[in-house]
Amino acid sequence: VGKVRFQLSMSLDGYVAGPNQSEEHPLGEGGEQLHEWAIANVGWRRAHRLEGGEENASTPVLERVADNVGAVIMGRNMFGPVRGGWGDGSWEGWWGDDPPFHVPVFVLTHHARGAIQKDGGTSFHFATDGLDSALRQARAAAGERDVSIAGGASTVQQCLRAGHVDEFDVHVVPVFLGAGERLFDGLGGDLRIEVTETIGAPGVTHLRYSVVR
Amino acid sequence: VGKVRFQLSMSLDGYVAGPNQSEEHPLGEGGEQLHEWAIANVGWRRAHRLEGGEENASTPVLERVADNVGAVIMGRNMFGPVRGGWGDGSWEGWWGDDPPFHVPVFVLTHHARGAIQKDGGTSFHFATDGLDSALRQARAAAGERDVSIAGGASTVQQCLRAGHVDEFDVHVVPVFLGAGERLFDGLGGDLRIEVTETIGAPGVTHLRYSVVR
Predict the structure, then answer these.
(1) Which of B8, B69, B66 shows the shortest CA–CA distance to B42?
(2) How many CB atoms lie within 10 A of CB A174?
(3) CB contact under 8 A, A12 and B175
(4) Residue B47 binned pLDDT confidence (cut-offs 50, 70, 90)
(5) What is the CA radius of gyration of chain A?
(6) Distance between A116 CA and the closest CA of chain B, angstroms
(7) Distance from the A98 Cα atom to the nearest Cα atom in chain B, whole angstroms
(8) Which residue of A has its CA nearest to B198?
(9) Which of A13, A192, A200 sits opposite B198 (nearest CB)?
């Protein structure tokens, strides 16, 4: 059976998004700096069907975190800037016709909505029965493969607190955001982890952790 | 002329001390977990004149951060749990007769006090004219060597904000404290840094950064 894991880019001061997230600034103000290392890399570009890009120590990391993922879970704030109900249902995510997931994506929300089928194997399913139920659905969809928690921070924290996470990658970017959404907040000392890998790359440090049971 | 630098152990959620610091818990509750990797290491033990210890990838890091230090600056909360005036002056630091600094230490305080001479080359000087003045005194004492900011977090942040820091080491420990004193808090995006080294070691990851001018 697959693992449950996540991978996120984090500023040195612990933020995964800057302040004032909006449709114009989906990553918050300054948040785009967290992803420059990835966007410049051939590993990320291939997954997003883009040409070119650098090949460096980050490339195998980017390939590995995408590898063996059979389903994705995300919070609704990551799916889009719409709050409350879904309105006319015209919002179908940030990612256009061919989102980079290529597997079923389960969006945590209080507001029911029919599934959306996209190109390239991505489908969005709206999970209204809470995290445990969403995770069961994602596990069933993933089969032998892993479930990846895409974010945001509060969804990751919920999964960590509930003991659902097996391993995770943090990409530490040498920048201070000063405000925004902190990745690791309100996590108790009873959550035991160990570091399993450390990789230095241009403009980013990749840290891999396992949760100790 | 020497550099200004600091090195601190930080939990993965960004804390350099746990909550409720006191004479009984100088590192806050749970904070001692941040230092286990160092205390077990021959590099730390040698500097503290203790026998034994492991030799591993952390050893050269511990030697390097102590190397070439000619003076130390610290906040008064790091010097001791006494608040307000110095009372009968019986508090002379946490470190006994032979503190592990072996150079002049400048303690930032609003309360004047005569210098204290300890064994092994350590002396404590109480700097009451603010950070810039303390730093000038420390630089003069260090000569060609470096000034090390020992902590705590608020002193480090003050130095970073004022543009005094040249480089720093963060030892990321795979533990969540959940509360306490965060190392990087309230630092603006105008402070530019780059990562210069990444070293994985047992139970800790060493990250070295330079401030970009």
Answers:
(1) B66
(2) 20
(3) no
(4) confident
(5) 16
(6) 36
(7) 34
(8) A200
(9) A200
Residue B152 identity: G
Whether residue B205 and residue A199 make contact (CB cut-off 8 A), yes or no, is: no
Phi and psi at B155, nearest 5°, equal -65, -45
B198 to A198: CB separation less than 8 angstroms, yes or no: yes
Q: Which residue has the tokens 């945001």?
A: A152
* CA distances in angstroms from B186 to A27, A67, A92, B8, listed in the order given: 19, 37, 35, 18
Distance (Å, whole) CA B43 – CA B66: 9
Could you give the CA distance from residue A46 to residue A52 in angstroms, rounded to a whole number?
8
pLDDT in tens, A91-147: 999 999 999 999 999 999 999 999 999 999 999 999 999 999 999 999 999 999 999
CA distance A73 to A107: 6
Per-residue burial over A92-101, b = 16 or more CB atoms within 10 Å of its CB, e = otherwise: ebebeeebeb
Q: Which two tokens stand for residue A145?
A: 């493969």
Our CA angle for A139, A141, A147, nearest 5°, is 45
By Cβ distance, the residue of A172, A176, A187 closest to B13 is: A187
Measured between beta carbons, the chain B residues lying within 8 angstroms of A193 are: 12, 174-176
A14–B182 CB contact, under 8 Å: yes
Residues in A touching B176 (Cβ below 8 Å): 184, 187-189, 191, 193
| Residue A96 backbone dihedrals phi, psi, to 5 degrees | 75, -160
Distances (CA, A) of B91 to A62, B79, B83, B138: 53, 9, 11, 22
- Assign B175 a pLDDT band (cuts: 50, 70, 90): very high
Considering only CB atoms, which chain A residues are within 8 Å of B178?
186-189
- CA dist A202 and A194 (Å) reads 24
Stated pTM of the model: 0.95
Are A172 and A178 within 8 A, CB to CB? no
Q: What is the ipTM of this complex?
A: 0.94
**Residue B183 · residue B10 · CB < 8 Å:** yes
